[in-house]
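Materials and Methods. Structural model of ATP synthase subunit c. The 73-residue sequence of ATP synthase subunit c from Terrimesophilobacter mesophilus was retrieved and submitted for structure prediction as follows.
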Amino acid sequence: MNLVGHIAPLAFGLAAIGSGIGVGVIVGKTVESVARQPELAGRLQTLMWIGIAITEALCFIAIGVAFIPFPAP
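The predicted structure was written out as C-alpha cells:
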C-alpha cells in the first residue's frame, strides 16, 4: 500500500493552515509593536519579513516531506 499518496493531501492542508496561522500571528504582533513604538517601525518590519520567510520555509519543508517514500515494513 502506497501511503505517500494518502498522506500528501493531509500534509498540504496542515502546512497551509500552520503557515497561515504563523504569518497572521507574526504580522499581528508586528502591527501591535509598531503601534506601541512607532520609531522602531523599520527595524520591526525587517524582523517581520525574516519571520515570515522562516515560517514559509517550514511550510515548504512539510510539503516536501510528504513526498519522501518510506520503505514498506
